[in-house]
């Protein structure tokens, strides 16, 4: 069974061919990072234009590298949401055209479910129930997944995503864009205990997370200590390295404290850590330690499958296809798509008044 995956939710135009949900025959990614860098972040309008000009060549290249022609594909899976509407629509429209043109099933994939499936290629089969910590630029959630395709949100960020915090703090420190890798590099020469940044605890008792208070604490620290930033192309000094290391340490500690708490009540047999922030080696090491304390394995995607890619979308598509969950041509992009199909939908939590203990 050959699935063509297409991903255009943010600033990567990606296409991949995956066999039987397990074997990557090709995975092509065109990253728009250089285009957006001068703006210090993704510009949605520019992103959609780039997707439009790249999607055709990227799909062709994925087919060529997989050594197949388009009529050999059994189904096309595409990211339906969440993401940037203009970007999503390019991928969805392209996938629909292929589905209609050659008469194969169309499958709409939740981008976050795609990240969960990014671990299936290079790890043993997932033993359920599993806990999945998905940490990216747009999302930070822990899902309880009692079996494949079943998700309950057991923890969420109440404000910024962890990756977003990395990106914003990197900007504050003059470390450039994207922030995650820049902070990680700067943190290498820094002391993670140099600045005791606070961890937010949410006082309504839920095992949720918050990163905006940490971001403000970094800002305040920079101002009160008149920290000097590196000029473009210059190496950061000790003060910046210490802040980067302390910030990174605080994010990692916050994420894994919640994982450990949720694991106590849900007793998972596997821990999954995926999404762009899962590239971070400090997070990986700490997650290893947490998992061994819990006595369970932890699965990560390899680096190139941690950030956005289409192989994970194709793998998720394979699982949905087996369940007969295909879409009609009326399917369209949905920026509000959520990943929760068991338990109560308490997704309005973001709107509730909450108090933080810092
Ligand atoms: O999954 P992803 O490619 O896109 C979204 O779905 O958002 O994640 C991108 C995010 C960015 O915020 C980026 O700064 C972060 O992942 N990231 C990292 C690292 N590499 C990428 N964060 C921390 N450490 C890294 N090494
Ligand atoms: Zn992503």
**Roughly how much helix do the residues carry, as a percent range?**
40-55%
Which molecules are bound besides the chains? 5'-O-[(R)-(carboxyoxy)(hydroxy)phosphoryl]adenosine, zinc ion
How many angstroms does the end-to-end distance come to? Answer: 51 Å
Per the principal axes of the C-alpha atoms, what is the gross shape? globular
Q: Can you count the beta strands? A: 12
Please give a structural write-up.
The protein is an alpha/beta fold. 40% of the residues lie in helices and 18% in strands. The chain has eleven helices and twelve strands. The strands form three sheets. Strands 3-2-1-4-5 form a five-stranded mixed sheet, sandwiched between helices. Strands 8-7-6-10-11 form a five-stranded mixed sheet, with helices on both faces. It has a two-stranded antiparallel sheet with strand order 9-12. A hairpin with a 3-residue loop joins strand 2 and strand 3 (23-31). Helix 4 crosses helix 11, helix 5 crosses helix 6 and helix 8 (238-266) runs parallel beside helix 9 (281-294). The longest helix has 29 residues, at 238-266. The protein is globular and about 65 Å long. Bound molecules: 5'-O-[(R)-(carboxyoxy)(hydroxy)phosphoryl]adenosine and zinc ion.
